[in-house]
Amino acid sequence: MTAVKPIIDQALTEWPEKIEAVIFDMDGLLLDTERVYKKVMQELCAEWGHEMSHEMFAAFVGIPQCENAPIYHKFFGKDFDVETYETVLVERAHDEMAKGIPLKHGAKELVSALDNRKVPIAVATSTGASAHDHLKSADLHHHFDTIVTRLDVSQGKPHPEPFLTAAERLNVNPTQCLAFEDSHNGVRSASAAGIATVMVPDMLDPTDEIADMCVAIVPSLLHFKAELDHFFG
Length: 233
Hints:
There is one protein chain. This protein is α/β, with parallel strands linked by helices. It has eleven helices and six strands. The protein has helices spanning 34-47, 54-60, 69-76, 82-97, 107-116, 130-137, 161-170, 184-192, 208-211, 222-225, 228-232, and strands spanning 21-24, 121-124, 146-148, 177-181, 196-199, 216-217. The chain has a six-stranded parallel beta sheet, with helices on both faces. Helix 1 packs across helix 4 (82-97). The two termini are 25 Å apart. 39% of the residues are buried.
């Protein structure tokens, strides 16, 4: 087994002096849902006579569904029937996820370990009401002190409101929180909230801009679990 390199040795910038709470993104970070969405979107696009390239799919990552229309119109033209397409997309994606939602590597281990240590933890996601069902299906929901969905805020990521709302609900100053994100807009959101951010890349690799906003970039959540004694010892 390859040894896990301590993330404190990989720091891109300084860590907070003390971490009081942890806030997680959901899709692509805790749950391996992005690959489900990509598969369904590619299949449905093909049925509609279009091709869903990786470049196009990447444009949707970290974006609330209510803000997707301009992306479809950019790639498929202004006459593309976004409402009908997304109605079918959501139905099919939910059918796929009803078969079981796979967890990202280290998600269960890290969330459980933080909960056992009584560290306040939250989710801040661009997904709407279905976020609760997905987390319950993955047997993670009960670990979190609060879950902030797209329906709980007026402005979604990359605006900082989702993370600021989560920190407020946890009654913790954002500067004393740590955020985990996989998307560029998620990193922008957490960073704009003043929260130290660790990126765990999923469908998107970090750019120089995104790396500058992070305290660390690691392959999986398991890397942070290995360092819990350092941060919460």
